[in-house]
Amino acid sequence: MHGIIRRYRARLPVSDTTPIVTLLEGDTPLVPAPRLAKAAGLPEDSVHLKLEGANPTGSFKDRGMTLAMSKALEEGSKGVLCASTGNTAASAAAYAARAGLPCVVVLPAGKVASGKLAQALMHGASVLAVKGGFDEALRISLEAAREEGWTVVNSTNPYRLQGQKTAAFEISEALGRMPDYQFMPVGNAGNITAYWMGYCELQGPRPAMMGFQAAGAAPIVLGKPVTSPKTVATAIRIGNPFSWKKAVEAKDESGGLIDKVTDREILSAYRFLAEKEGVFCEPSSAAGAAGLLKHGRSLRPGRDLRVVCILTGHGLKDPEAPALLKHRVRRIPADAAAIRRVLRCGR
């Protein structure tokens, strides 16, 4: 592994003098998902999962953060700042620690999963909790950074999207071509924008970009900002996406769609991926898979169909989420006979 900057240097806005801040991100697995494909009414060999939770801090944010942090260091930044629903905070804190830069993260109070908060704290970031949602946190962060000369490392930073586009290169290399369809979550809408940027740099037929917002946080679908977004998928609980216009352009240019899925559909896909495919992602990551289960039977089947679902973050990012489902730990006596009774039942 080399990290995405060294691997894709020719396609990124860096020079020989750019200091590379890396945790060897990228090169994440593309895993076949035959049971998901079958459940979506598609050929069993047609669907793959891009496991972005295998990045160093457990989410796709690391792809953009290595580039944003490297450029911040190159430009002599005083420090880095971000607003976050959690994953950006974790990634910014880790890469800032690697770079030796101070880091401040601004989070919506009480609305960030504990796994992500723990990462930001452990990596030494100054964590500020504000009353309100992500959109308010981003607004005041941009204002403060502008006045103090700090670098914002949200997806408002163009280097973030440049780094994130590299996942499109990896997918195409692994498949030997671009997929026919790509299903993915949409929150602040930078990631769907970045993937489309990446695909547009390649030669050949490009995928239809299929983005999915949570029904309680679906401003693009509704065509207007959502003042108080609500969803169990905390990473996409965003009411006014910064990359809204570019996401719509990606959808339109690719012949794709941006739709919504309910929390029930998200949690159902979240559970399905864990129990049937052995892949544990955070609930927001499952929005794309929920979209595939919703729309799979309407896809143009074609010969040698290739569909990719982007799973943006690892399940341990949101350790409270499994409690939303009906799981139980059975207490038994210290007796092999008690275990044998379970084995005979098969569960």
CATH secondary-structure class of the largest domain: Alpha Beta
Task: Report helical residue fraction.
Answer: 40-55%
Residues in β-strands, percent: 5-15%
Which architecture of the largest domain per CATH? 3-Layer(aba) Sandwich
Total strand segments: 10
What pattern of helices and strands is seen along the backbone?
HEHEHEHEHEHEHHEHEHHEHHEH
**Classification by helices and strands:** alpha/beta
CATH topology call of the largest domain: Rossmann fold
Q: Kindly state the mean pLDDT as a whole number?
A: 94
How many helix segments? Answer: 14
- Biggest sheet architecture: 6 strands, mixed
Strand order of the largest sheet: 1-2-10-7-8-9
- What is the overall shape? globular
Spatial extent as radius of gyration: 20 Å
How far is the N terminus from the C terminus?
40 Å
Uncertain runs are none
Tally the structural domains.
Answer: 2
